[in-house]
Amino acid sequence: MTKKLVPDPPITTHTSTENVLKDREAINRAIDLYLNPPAPYAEKPRRPSTMYMIAPDVDTESLLANACESLASASVLASDFANNLIGPQRHTALAIQQIIMQAELAVNRALDNVVPA
Questions:
Q1: For the whole prediction, is pTM greater than 0.85?
Q2: Is residue 78 pLDDT above 80, yes or no?
Q3: CB 81 within 8 A of CB 107
């Protein structure tokens, strides 16, 4: 039989109260971390930026007309950009242009509903 180079750790039958309390505190901290997240992880209320702000007294017709013009410009830009591309990139740019065009149509319909012709 060969003798072990490293002896087994001593077997203790009683655990000190201090170790039990430390273990319990660690368990409670781990549980609290997941069940009661600290304040930095709590969701903050959304506060929109005021860098670019639309005047609150602008009427709906003007807002819709401006949105329609912006979407028309974006549609032309996407279309011109797609003309310079080939392959899958071109298809992606044309898909973006089509989504912009559909949004423009929706805004035009909303504008028609606000100001009947």
A1: no
A2: yes
A3: no
